[in-house]
Amino acid sequence: MAIYTRTGDKGETSVIGGRVGKDDVRVEAYGTIDELNCFVGQARSLMEDERFADVREQLLEIQHELFDCGSDLAFVKLSENKYKVKSEMAVRLEGWIDVLQAENPVLERFILPGGSQLSSVLHVCRTVCRRAERRAVTLGRSADINPEAVVYLNRLSDYFFALARAANTRLEVAEVEYLRSKKVFRNK
């Protein structure tokens, strides 16, 4: 089977239920999710030692869910009962975030993305996830979309932040605080 179809040679692509320009906001939304999924795969590939077995499995589940999320956004018209992204997925992410946060040092100031190579890639995941969320919000202003996809992406970026910090903690790599930051986080 050939992977090329030549049907997109004039700047259009197929979505579920029609054809749109390759620069359509819908394509931007699910395309950014696809980009995110690639970076998640890269992060997983950097987690070969046992210290990351738990989150390696979480990231595999997230990769499947990102396909679900992209699928939900690729539909021009989809009834609510066919959506793949459900509210329970964001709730599960919150539980994972809480576990990760418990192992992270107290945060008082903004931190610079980086530290270990793994943490750096996870920060890229966080920022691409935020962009995917913005694209989904933009799409939602002009089309009906699954609102749970936006909630999921919002929570997922928080997960990547917590995981990036946990990666540095597990690897015993210090985070670098943003030197010009005042203490902006109040720990209760």
UniProtKB/TrEMBL annotation:
Residues annotated as domain Cobalamin adenosyltransferase-like: 3-166
Top enzyme class: transferase
Pathway given in the UniProt record: Cofactor biosynthesis; adenosylcobalamin biosynthesis; adenosylcobalamin from cob(II)yrinate a,c-diamide: step 2/7
Catalysed reactions, as listed in the record: 2 cob(II)yrinate a,c diamide + reduced [electron-transfer flavoprotein] + 2 ATP = 2 adenosylcob(III)yrinate a,c-diamide + 2 triphosphate + oxidized [electron-transfer flavoprotein] + 3 H(+); 2 cob(II)alamin + reduced [electron-transfer flavoprotein] + 2 ATP = 2 adenosylcob(III)alamin + 2 triphosphate + oxidized [electron-transfer flavoprotein] + 3 H(+)
Record flagged with keyword Transferase: yes
Highest taxon listed in the record's lineage: Bacteria
EC numbers on record: 2.5.1.17
Pfam families xref list: Cob_adeno_trans (PF01923)
InterPro entries: CblAdoTrfase-like, CblAdoTrfase-like_sf, PduO-typ
Signal peptide range: none
Transferase is among the record's keywords: yes
GO molecular function: corrinoid adenosyltransferase activity
Keywords: ATP-binding, Cobalamin biosynthesis, Nucleotide-binding, Transferase
Entry-linked PANTHER family: CORRINOID ADENOSYLTRANSFERASE, CORRINOID ADENOSYLTRANSFERASE MMAB
Entry's family note: Belongs to the Cob(I)alamin adenosyltransferase family.
Protein name, per record: Corrinoid adenosyltransferase
The species this protein was found in: Paenibacillus phytohabitans
